[in-house]
Amino acid sequence: MTSQTTRTTLLAILTLLLPAALLIYVRQSALSETLWTLPLFHFYIVTFTSFVALIAAIFIGVGVLEQKLTFRNYTLTLAFGGMAAFFVLHGLATPGILLPGPNQAVVWSATLSLFCGAFFFAASIMPLPQRWQEKVLQHGTNLRRLLIVLYLLYALIAFFYPQPLASISAAGGGNLPRLIASISIALYAFSAWRYWQSYLAEQRALHSHLALAAALLAEAQISMTWYAPWQINWWLYHFLMLTGYSLAVFSIAREYESVRA
Predict the structure, then answer these.
(1) Are 123 and 137 in contact (CB under 8 A)?
(2) Where are the domains of the chain?
(3) Looking at residue 1, what is its pLDDT?
(4) Contact between 16 and 211 (Cβ < 8 Å)
(5) Nearest-angstrom CA–CA distance, 238 and 231
(6) Which long-range contacts (CB under 8 A, 24 or more apart) does 148-154 make?
(7) Among residues 12, 44, 62, which one has the least CA distance to residue 247?
(8) Average pLDDT of the segment spanning 222-246
(9) Residues 174, 176, 182, 185: is their CA dihedral positive or negative?
(10) How many CA atoms lie within 13 A of 98 on its CB side?
(11) Which CATH number fits domain 37-260: 1.20.1070, 1.10.760, 1.25.40, 2.20.25?
(12) pLDDT classification of 257: cutoffs 50, 70, 90
């Protein structure tokens, strides 16, 4: 292991340990009962930040795919575009702003945001047969259109006809979002491990950044799912998501610019 690899490994471990330690500390202290109920702040910050992240993902994704259309680039574009798109809805669904009180849209939009990211993140590094990858790329435009239609259909249901979402939640005894969250954590863990192995083999900084981003998003999923809304640890997941998302997207953008140059 080179000195650069050692430094990168130590920095990654430290970056992951800090939020984990904070989660444990807050959980064990009196702060665990403290609520920061700031719906208006949440509405504006989350909606605006997610919208900017979505625009950034679209522009970077278009540039990357125009330069080099690969299965990995394609699925990473879907991962971060989908994550931001669903999180815009999470911000818009902040209780008491556009929608009255607790609602299904705010819960499901956050859950689907991280799940969408986890699914396509894992797909980007999964050792799929070459013919499968080529088949996806051949139908890439139609797949994007289908995903956009499904997203708009979900938004329509979540904001105007939320009863189906409530029924789905009730049918699972309220545990379905946690089940989906557990799957997301497993997918992010798989992605982090695979990208880290790729980094050790190829020494590409981008892969170390993607590995760290996946691990941060797994921590965000834990913070979001197992803590009550407005608790300090619940707020932490927004920061973890922003950090992991920004690290990945801007690392991809930087590599894209370096290749162009």
Answers:
(1) no
(2) 37-260
(3) 61
(4) no
(5) 12
(6) 151/82, 151/85, 151/86, 154/89, 154/112
(7) 12
(8) 92
(9) negative
(10) 16
(11) 1.20.1070
(12) confident
